[in-house]
Amino acid sequence: PIIAKMHTSDKLVIAGKLGPEPEILMNMYKLLIEDQTKLKVEVKPNFGKTNFLYEALKKGDIDIYPEFSGTITESLLKNKPKVSHEPEEVYEVARKGILEQDGFVFLKPMAYQNTYAVAVPKQLAEAEKLTKISDLKKVNRPLKAGFTLEFNDREDGNKGLQSMYGLQLDVATMEPALRYQAIQSGDIQVTDAYSTDAEISRYQLKVLEDDKQLFPPYQGAPLMKQELLKKHPELEGILNQLAGKISEEEMSQMNFEVGANGRPAEEVAREYLVKINLLKQ
Questions:
Q1: What is the pTM of this model?
Q2: Are residues 180 and 246 in the same domain?
Q3: Strands 40-44 and 205-208
Q4: What stretches of the chain show up as alpha helix (H) in DSSP?
């Protein structure tokens, strides 16, 4: 058993939280690292929830996992910082905080946010020229919203839509899965979602821009120990090639491909990296 602890220095273990999105990201990390170094990478998808991954990284059972700025500031930093909802600020507080607290390096974030979102059918968005949440105030016909109980009660949910955006929507609360059926059948026109949900692609929805920064920012990037970068400094440049890449729409589409269409995460990851010229065909 002693040997198991020392995984050899030329093999990396990359793990991820539950669901298709982390699995797609970790496969991107694997493909880039194996393409540009002699390192071998083992991926461990659906490894567990946030805390389990965080502890595994501390113990050295895993080397890298994709994490989000908002999760670091909200859940992982013991002295919970006061932060605005300004993405750059939250990222910087997360990056500095986790480095000081644990000696973990949080690399540069991708473009998309995985956070709460307000979504409407694409047809409605086109007809009413809706691009941001504040545009909902201009709609003259009554709009019915279907929100989860949690979103309806949260300050950074419907309460904030009322106070920050001045929206008084006619709300029905419903189970998460029912929202998408209700929007498809036309019973509701507005719903809450996570900005990279596969359903956004599946049901032809448009995510409205959170122009007043109601929702906390969750930008994703690889998290690893400082020691790993001391040993393999080239990893930073390799993984930072994903900085500023992948939009919400692209992530939602990839989540749909894997989650709904059952395509292998590695195949979807490879296709995207080839498309943005980070991998050769």
A1: 0.87
A2: no
A3: unpaired
A4: 2-5, 20-36, 50-59, 69-71, 87-102, 122-128, 149-153, 158-163, 176-184, 198-202, 226-231, 234-239, 248-259, 265-275
Asked whether residue 222 falls in the same domain as residue 97, the answer is yes
Q: Which of 68, 170, 64, 184 is nearest to 121 (CA)?
A: 184
Q: What is the span of the domain harbouring residue 269?
A: 2-113+218-275
Pair 231, 106 in one domain: yes
Does an H or E element contain 9, and which? none
Nearest alpha-carbon partner for 164 in 215, 203, 119: 215
Q: Is residue 7 part of a domain?
A: yes
Taking only the tens place, the pLDDT of each residue in 22-33 is: 999 999 999 999
Beta-bridge mates of residue 255? none
Digit-coded pLDDT (tens) for 152-169 = 998 889 999 999 999 999
- Cα–Cα dist 244/88, whole Å: 12
Q: What is the pLDDT of residue 177?
A: 85
Dist. CA 194–CA 248, nearest whole Å: 10
Q: How many domains does the chain have?
A: 2
Residues 34 and 109 in one domain: yes
Query: What's the token pair of residue 221?
Result: 């990037």
DSSP state of 28: H
Q: Which single residue is written with the structure tokens 């059926």?
A: 181
**CATH number of the domain enclosing 135:** 3.40.190.120
| CA separation for the pair 43, 65 (Å, rounded) | 10
Rg (CA), the chain: 20
Distances (CA, A) of 237 to 146, 209, 247, 253: 43, 31, 20, 26
Whole-number Cα distances in Å, 171 to 53, 152, 182: 37, 8, 12
